[in-house]
Each structure stands twice: as C-alpha cells, then as structure tokens.
Amino acid sequence: MSANTESGAAAPGKAMVTGGAGFIGSHVALRLAEAGWRVGVVDDLSAGAQAHFDALAAAGVRDLFVADVSGPEAADLLSRWRPDVVVHLAAQSKVSTSVASPAAGAVANVVGTVNLLEAAVAAGAAKFVAASSGGAAYGSLPPGAGSHSERSARLPLSPYGASKAAADLYLEMYAETYGISCTSLLLGNVYGDRLDRRYSSDVIAHSIGRIRAGERPRIYGDGTQTRDFVHVSDVVEAFKTACETDAAGSFNIGTGVETSVNEVVAMVCAVMGAPHEVEYAPELPAEVRRVRLDIAAAERVLGWRPKVDLESGIRGMRERLGSETA
Questions:
Q1: Which one of the listed residues 160, 170, 174, 220 is annotated catalytic?
Q2: Which end of the chain is more exposed for a tag (fewer CB within 10 A), N or C?
Q3: Where are the coiled-coil regions (predicted)?
C-alpha cells in the first residue's frame, strides 16, 4: 500500500483509539484530546495500564471502555459511538510471545484488525489509522541495503511480523473494496515516557529499569543487531497528522538512523551515570538483524519528520524518572 498525496485537512471530530491504555495509545489519545478531538478509548487491559485510563480521565477523556477488539463488544461499541476515525493500536506486540503462541497472536492482530475494519465501515467511519511494525513486518534489512521503503518486500521472520504484514494487506483491501480511507504507520522501535518494561521488549526501557534496580543491562545476542529508534512524541505527531489529513497508504515512521543494541545500551549507561557493564544472554528467536527505515514518504506526504534524537530522548526519560521519584 503506497502513499497517496495529501489533499486536505480534516477538522477534529470523534476518534476511537484502541489500545489506548497502552504505551503509545495513551500518548495518542491524550494528544488528540488536546487537539480538540472527542476521544474514546477501548482497551482490554491485558497489557494496558489502569493508571493510563486514570490519567486519561483526569485529562477529560470520559469515554473509556474495556473490551477485546477481536470480540463482538468492540464492534458493538463502534456501532453505538460512531467515530469519524478509528486509531488502531491494540495488539499482541511481543515477538517472543508470538513465537510461543502464534495462533493467539493472529487472533489479536489479524482477526482483531478485520473485526474493527468491518465495524468501522458499518459505523460510517471515514478513516482507519493503524499501527504496524517497521521492523518485524519487513524482516531483516539485507546486508549492504540502505533502508526499507514502503515498497520493500514484507519478509517477516516471526508470527508477530507475519500478523502485522497480513493486517496491512487487509487495510489495503478494505480501502480498495469498501472505500474507507486507510493509513498504516510502520513504526520503528518506539521508546519514551510511560513505557512499561513488563510488557515491552524495548532495550532502552529494560536497560534503564535494570540499572535503577542495581543490575547490569542485559543484551540478547551479540548486540550487533540494529534498530531504528523513534521517540514516542514523534510517533504521536505522526498519528495526529494521519488523522487530520486526507493522506492514505503506508508510511514508515522512524528516524532513518540505524543504531546497534550495543551502541544504545552504552548510551543508556552513560546517560544514567552507570558503569558500562553488560550481561549477554542467548539471542531471542526470530531476531531481526537490521532495521533502518526510509522516512521520505512521511516527510513528503504527511509533512512529518522526527524531532527528538536518541540521546536527547534517553536523557528525557532519565529526567522524568528523577522528577517522579523526587
């Protein structure tokens, strides 16, 4: 699903955010509410946090619902609430969990997406904006290749990546067959405030958490695997822009910068003022070796570009943790 040219901006209306009690979803819901959208949030709280629901309520988001997007409750909810835009972030998002339970991941990520697409069309929603994976869905960037563009082949290595690639195909089909505007944002490795390391495989959050607990950061594999790290504040602006424009299609949302796990852990240690002492563990299954995203389409069509560099983002996480414990 390639990018289409932007042709206008939509006034804030009603946006239903799935997975809105999760890390990215809670940030997106708050940002849309700040921008004047009437925001509804649905989450089954299997990985999302009640504290995020509480923060949304405190910010004036009143339409908070507990439901599983793969079941009938979410479809009924969309029918009653009738959003203008569905922002779909609910997912089973851990690669290791998908390897252990591929069928469950497919239900959550593929059936859940199709269930919501069907409900969105029936409810008269004009737009469907979904989170995809800029690492797992593409698979490993081949040696010598510069970056993955939206036209790159999808060669996932994990059930999670396959489920995201399949969901993207459903978005493309629904746009063509049912006429609903669909946008897929293929995200790099998202990090930042409120990232709960219990439900994430993010190396930054895990490293900070282990250092604060007096433990050494742990790296799975040799640490030469690379990622495209993007701050959650930049990701949130991409979702807001996708909701507010007529642009549709697939867009990579990253930085275009390839950073090894060894490099990012060294950066975390330096920012945290901790010794650069690392514990290495066996490589995880279905490990993607290289990730670097070509973000030219998002820059050109959405007018979006990242603003937060990696070191500044990590420093911001450290400072926020310091203020919370002061």
A1: 160
A2: C
A3: none
